[in-house]
Design brief:
The chain has a single domain, classed as 3-Layer(aba) Sandwich (Rossmann fold), CATH 3.40.50.2300. The chain has 5 helices and 5 strands, in the order βαβαβαβαβα. A 5-stranded parallel sheet has the order 2-1-3-4-5, sandwiched between helices. The longest helix is centred in the C-terminal third of the chain and has 16 residues. The relative contact order is 0.17.
Length: 128
């Protein structure tokens, strides 16, 4: 097992996106945990303490934005950065992004390679 492997929580209610993104990240050596809605993701984040959250914006129970807001309110998860996946050119307010620790928004459709490049960059920043 690789020491100091970075753990990523991937959250999306679309199973095929969850599968493709998770597979790409695992193949690149990341440890991946998944959730299919915001409420489940919030619970998992508190137990698993991931290094990064990749979340869809539109999900049942808690939106990706609300998930990030709640993570910021919990002392043990407040430090976790996020990547937001959004549909149809939806844009987030820059102030919300900064306040909630959202480092970048990727618009669907995106390529798994694009996600991996962004994750690699963010994980290097976290490590430095």
């Amino acid at each position: 097992m690789i020491e100091n492997r970075k753990k990523i929580l991937v959250v999306d209610d679309e199973v095929h996106i969850l599968h493709v993104v998770s597979l790409k990240l695992r193949n690149a050596g990341y440890e991946v945990v998944t959730a299919q809605d915001g409420r489940e993701a919030l619970e998992i984040a508190q137990v698993e303490n991931p290094d990064l959250v990749i979340t869809d914006y539109q999900m049942p129970y808690l939106s990706g934005l609300e998930l990030c807001r709640r993570l910021k309110q919990i002392p043990q998860t407040t430090h976790i950065p996020a990547i937001m996946l959004t549909a149809r050119g939806f844009a987030l307010d820059q102030n919300d992004m900064h306040e909630l620790g959202i480092k970048i928004c990727l618009h669907k459709p995106f390529s798994p390679r694009e996600v991996l490049c962004v994750v690699d960059e963010l994980m290097q920043e976290v490590t430095v």
